[in-house]
Amino acid sequence: MAAFNIIINGKKHQVDADPQMPLLWVIRDIVGLTGTKYGCGIAQCGACTVHIGDLAVRSCMFPVQSVGDDPITTIEGLSEKGDHPVQKAWKEIDVPQCGYCQSGQIMTAVALLKKNPNPTEEEIHRTMTNICRCGTYNRIKKAIKQASQQS
């Protein structure tokens, strides 16, 4: 066990954890933020996506010791009122079906738009590798395009 000082959603947390503990479990089990979901545990599905700095990271395989001083943003910290342009587009397009993967989808989309404010369909397709068992990919793509025009 080791003590780590991490910043999640602008708030400093001191956590005691195994250095190899995946960030996902620190966020969910130690800090108590449950918007970031566990999907596959092997960094393939993207349900656990958070931002470390401006990078989208799959937190289920990212050890807490690797965070360093970079701030972490979870879905809860994206917007206090849920009014980030991507969140608004998600609601307007009615993207979610079951909703389980959506926090990871949104976090990946936000990172894409920070890096590339006006992505092409091909750039969206290449970046959005998160898995949606409900198959809402067309609505996800449409919401990202809409959010890119609102930003």
Keywords:
151 residues, alpha+beta, 3-stranded antiparallel β-sheet, two-stranded antiparallel sheet, globular
Instruction: Give the termini distance in whole angstroms.
Output: 42 Å
Major β-sheet profile = 3 strands, antiparallel
Tally of alpha and pi helices: 6
Q: In percent, how helical is the residue content?
A: 25-40%
Structural class: alpha+beta
Number of strands: 5
Multimeric status of the protein: single chain
The average pLDDT value, as a whole number, equals: 97
- Spell out the helices and strands N to C: EEHEEEHHHHH
* Rg (CA only): 15 Å
As laid out across the biggest beta sheet, the strand order is 4-3-5
Q: What coarse outline follows from CA principal-axis ratios?
A: globular
Beta-strand percentage range: 15-25%
Give start-end ranges of low-pLDDT stretches: none
Secondary-structure blueprint:
Elements (H helix, E strand, L loop, with lengths): L1 E7 L2 E7 L5 H9 L17 E4 L2 E4 L13 E2 L1 H4 L6 H9 L8 H14 L5 H7 L9 H14 L1
Antiparallel strand pairs: 1-2, 3-4, 3-5
Helix pairs in contact: 3-6
Walk me through what this model shows.
- By secondary structure, the chain is an alpha+beta fold.
- It is 38% helix and 16% strand.
- The strands form two sheets. Strands 4-3-5 form a three-stranded antiparallel sheet. Strands 1-2 form a two-stranded antiparallel ribbon.
- Strand 3 and strand 4 (55-58) form a beta hairpin.
- The longest helix is centred in the C-terminal third of the chain and has 14 residues, at 102-115.
- The radius of gyration is 15 Å and the shape is globular.
- The mean pLDDT is 97.
